[in-house]
Amino acid sequence: MSEVNVLIVEDEPMVAEDIAEALNNIDFKVSAVVYTEKAALEELLQNTPDIAILDINLKNGKEGIQIAEEINRRFHIPFVYLTAYSDKQTLEMAQHTQPAGYLVKPFTEKNLFATLQLALLNHGRRLKDNFSLPALDKINIKLTAPISDREYELLAKIFEGLTTKQMAEQLFIAASTVKTHIRNIYLKLDVINRSGAIARIRELMLR
User: Which of 128, 155, 181 corresponds to the end of one domain?
Assistant: First the structure.
């Protein structure tokens, strides 16, 4: 539950399997693997992830670009392109959607992790420019079960885009302790993942 939920949109099953195998670890969890634009949009709507990995060219063309545009309009989560194409035209189209990262196939696990971690951090910085995490007392006045000081500290790290491992290292606590605190945060906010927590805080502040 505390991992970063990743949606994989990739029409080559073997590539999708490689990505999924690499990502199921302490920091990341694959929320779904889909192969078409329609399936991707359904998954985004029904089970919004924390970040998405998008192949640009699916079976019928550059549907990955269209998915990215829909993410920007409706879901406001970071996304990373993973593609076999790096020509000027494709890069210009991709840049227009403001991706949080761009990986060219074939990828390595090291590059994949680095790209995702940087994407989350960059998204956190952009989020802070538009919406800062409110003070703890302003959040708690809206909640039935108050968030503790330590949980608020972890909530701030979620807003920054840090992974579980990064949080543990920065706060000098065990990863298992981080996971426990994040689970408690989700329960108090009535959400199931990081993107949900961020959206919930924004919603509370609009009341």
Answer: 128
Q: Which residues is 2 bridged to in the sheet?
A: none
Distance CA 50, CA 45 (A): 12
**Is the sign of the CA dihedral 12, 56, 197, 45 positive or negative?**
negative
For 145, counting Cβ atoms within 10 Å of its Cβ (0-12 exposed, 13-18 middle, 19+ buried), the class is exposed
Q: 113-160, pLDDT tens digit by residue?
A: 999 999 999 999 888 888 889 999 999 999 999 999 999 999 999 999
Domain count for the chain: 2
pTM as predicted: 0.91
User: Measured over all CA atoms, what is the biggest interatomic distance in the chain, rounded to whole angstroms?
Assistant: 53
Mean pLDDT (the chain) is 92
